[in-house]
Amino acid sequence: MTIKWDDSAARAAVKSGGAAGLKKWADDVLAASQPEVPVSPNTGGGFLKRSGKAEVDAGAMRAAVSYAGPSDKPALPIWVHENMAVQHSTGKAKFLEGPLLASASRGLEATAHEIKARLG
After folding, report:
1. Which helix or strand (DSSP H or E) is residue 57 part of?
2. Which helix (H) or strand (E) holds 12?
3. What is the mean pLDDT of residues 29-44?
4. Which of 58, 103, 75 lies closest to 66 in space, CA to CA?
5. What mean pLDDT is reported for the chain?
6. Contact 61/16 with Cβ under 8 angstroms?
7. End-to-end Cα separation, the chain, in angstroms
8. How many other CB atoms are there within 10 angstroms of residue 60's CB atom?
9. Nearest partner of 103 among 91, 115, 111, judged by Cα
10. How far apart are CA 62 and CA 43, in angstroms?
C-alpha cells in the first residue's frame, strides 16, 4: 500500500479544522456564560450580557470570549467578573471562568473532531 502525503493540504486541513473547532468551543463558552452574567439596572439593564461575543483569530489559532462595558465604564466587565464580594440578584461573579473550565474537554474534543473531519 502506498500513501501519498500532501503536506500543504494536511496543514490547510489542520488550520481550517482547528479554527472551526475553536469557534464552536468559543460559541459554547459564550452560550454557557450568558445565564451567569449579572443583569442589574446599575450595569445598563443587561448591557453586559448583550455585549458578549466569541471570536477566533485563525492565523494565531486563538479564540476569545469577551464582554464589553459601556463607553463610560469600559472596565465594568472585569470588575463584575472578579468582584466576589458583590451579591448579584441574577448571575454571579466568575460568570465566564466557570463555563470555560467546564467546557475544556468538550472544546478539545470538538476541535479534534473538526480537524479529523477535514483530514478525511
Report:
1. strand 53-57
2. helix 7-33
3. 83
4. 75
5. 89
6. no
7. 17
8. 8
9. 111
10. 29
Residue with cell 459554547: 28
Contact 47, 70 (CB under 8 A): yes
Q: What is the pLDDT of residue 112?
A: 95
Domain extents in the chain: 7-119
Amino acid type, 55: E
In this predicted structure, what is the pLDDT of residue 90? 82
43-97 pLDDT per residue, tens = 556 888 899 999 999 999 999 999 998 888 888 888 888 888 887 778 888 999 9
The C-alpha cell of 27 is what? Answer: 460559541
60 and 30 in contact (C-beta within 8 Å)?
no
Length of the chain: 120
Q: How far apart are CA 11 and CA 31, in angstroms?
A: 30
Inter-axis angle of helices 104-119 and 7-33, to 10 degrees?
A: 150
